[in-house]
């Protein structure tokens, strides 16, 4: 986001989470007042401790799946609240579906009442285990509706359908970000591949790889992802937009890069593959480049270096 914004006051659901904390930070830096709403079911106060004393930031502790409201009016609603990693949506399956459905409805209602722009944080998981590669936004996906990950995938697919229908019916300006794997400082090590590998490398224990390690991901640095979400907000674009990095890497190579940036000598340990784990994940970001002029700026090696440096600080608080 540029130094200034067309928005004055934003509501960020999931503002106390990993990506939410970057979104709040960038909005505040652009001069936007921010109300972060979070129930801390997966996020943590430590993520936004540095924002609490910043003028213009307010934290509201609430469950957005229940009816909630904002103090005063807003002109932007960013809906990020949702469990977002495998162990978290396994632990919170019903909550995941409720925040994708009721939570999305409640956030949209606020946008409608205030005449605000609305942005949904969706996910590359809507493509499931994709049969098309790389994935562009025209691809409809290959999702198992009752698989282990379905509570998340289908909640987000529902949220996209709901957002689109609600926007049309009530004339609300809506945007949809399909976010691919993001990483960076403050990411918890449980269930997230990069921060998990970094924690294992720093602890000198084996880096555990699910399956053969030839499955691919395209990790995007969190600051770039947040910039992408805010580029969608600033535009009036209404179709889904992939926000991710096109640098595709196998999990095995990612583990090697992490050993290199941390200087660790941990071995790799191969364990059972995750159910419905996608083999290939890489976004086609032509639409984001064309419609928003957005593309990631932080190269993978540099982002891994920054993430590892933050994790190795004695004060690093993952939880
Ligand atoms: P996160 O778990 O760190 O953040 C989500 C936040 O939402 C947490 O602070 C959590 O406490 C809050 N939350 C969950 N349910 C809530 C509820 N009912 N009411 C209020 N707050 C609630 O996860 P993240 O990685 O920051 O993800 C943020 C958003 O981006 C999610 O919607 C996720 O699906 C999406 N996303 C993230 C990634 C990624 O790689 N991090 C990839 C694709 C999509």
TrEMBL record:
EC number: 4.1.1.35
Domain of life, source organism: Bacteria
Stretches assigned to the NAD(P)-binding domain: 11-307
Gene3D superfamilies membership: NAD(P)-binding Rossmann-like Domain (3.40.50.720)
Keywords for this protein: Decarboxylase, Golgi apparatus, Lyase, Membrane, NAD, Signal-anchor, Transmembrane, Transmembrane helix
Membrane topology: Single-pass type II membrane protein
A matching Pfam family: GDP_Man_Dehyd
Keyword Cell cycle: no
Molecular function (Gene Ontology), one example: GDP-mannose 4,6-dehydratase activity
Subcellular location: Golgi apparatus, Golgi stack membrane
InterPro entries the record matches: NAD(P)-bd_dom (IPR016040), NAD(P)-bd_dom_sf (IPR036291), UXS-like (IPR044516)
Keyword Lipid biosynthesis: no
Broad class of where this protein is predominantly found: Golgi
UniProt pathway annotation: Nucleotide-sugar biosynthesis; UDP-alpha-D-xylose biosynthesis; UDP-alpha-D-xylose from UDP-alpha-D-glucuronate: step 1/1
Cofactors required: NAD(+)
Record's signal peptide: none
Family listed: Belongs to the NAD(P)-dependent epimerase/dehydratase family. UDP-glucuronic acid decarboxylase subfamily.
Protein name according to UniProt: UDP-glucuronate decarboxylase
Protein source organism: Micromonospora parva
UniProt lineage: Bacteria, Bacillati, Actinomycetota, Actinomycetes, Micromonosporales
């Amino acid at each position: 986001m540029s130094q200034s914004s067309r928005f004055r006051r934003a509501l960020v659901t999931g503002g106390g989470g990993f990506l939410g904390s970057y979104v709040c930070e960038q909005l505040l830096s652009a001069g936007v007042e921010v109300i972060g709403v979070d129930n801390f079911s997966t996020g943590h106060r430590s993520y936004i401790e540095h924002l609490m004393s910043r003028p213009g930031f307010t934290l509201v502790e609430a469950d957005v799946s229940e009816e909630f409201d904002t103090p005063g009016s807003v002109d932007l609603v960013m809906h990020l609240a949702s469990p977002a990693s495998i162990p978290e949506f396994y632990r919170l399956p019903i909550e995941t579906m409720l925040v994708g459905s009721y939570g999305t409805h409640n956030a949209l209602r606020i946008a409608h009442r205030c005449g605000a722009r609305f942005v949904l944080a969706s996910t590359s998981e809507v493509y499931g285990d994709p049969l098309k590669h790389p994935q562009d936004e025209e691809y409809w996906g290959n999702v198992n509706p009752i698989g282990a990950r379905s509570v998340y995938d289908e909640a987000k697919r529902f949220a996209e359908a709901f957002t689109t229908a609600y926007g049309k019916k009530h004339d609300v300006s809506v945007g949809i970000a399909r976010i691919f794997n993001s990483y960076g400082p403050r990411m918890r090590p449980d269930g997230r591949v990069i921060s998990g590998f970094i924690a294992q490398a720093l602890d000198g224990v084996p880096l555990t790889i699910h399956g053969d390690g030839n499955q691919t991901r395209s990790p995007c640095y969190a600051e770039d992802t947040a910039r992408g979400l805010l580029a969608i907000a600033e535009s009036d674009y209404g179709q889904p937009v992939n926000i991710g990095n096109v640098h595709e890497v196998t999990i095995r190579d990612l583990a090697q890069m992490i050993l290199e940036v941390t200087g660790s000598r941990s071995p790799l340990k191969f364990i059972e593959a995750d159910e419905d784990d996608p083999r290939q994940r890489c976004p086609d970001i032509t639409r984001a480049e064309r419609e928003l002029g957005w593309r990631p700026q932080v190269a993978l090696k540099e982002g891994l270096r920054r993430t590892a440096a933050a994790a190795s600080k004695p004060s690093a608080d993952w939880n």
